[in-house]
Design goal:
The protein has 50 residues and is mainly α. The chain contains 2 helices and no strands. It has a domain of 34 residues. The chain is 48% helix and 0% strand. The longest helix is centred in the N-terminal third of the chain and has 13 residues.
């Protein structure tokens, strides 16, 4: 599995796009990308380096 790094601004932009989609578009996204959309609801700790 590949690691993905997002900064806080990029994550916020993704959440704003997600919020604009209707249920039909979201379901299409779920069917193509599985659980990936759930990442948009995760709490991200940005003050810790890994």
């Amino acid at each position: 599995m590949e690691k993905v790094f997002l900064d806080k601004k990029s994550l916020q932009e993704l959440k704003e796009i997600w919020d604009q989609w209707n249920d039909k578009v979201r379901q299409l996204f779920y069917s193509n990308y599985g659980d990936l959309p759930y990442l948009l609801d995760m709490k991200i700790q940005v003050d810790r380096a890994y």
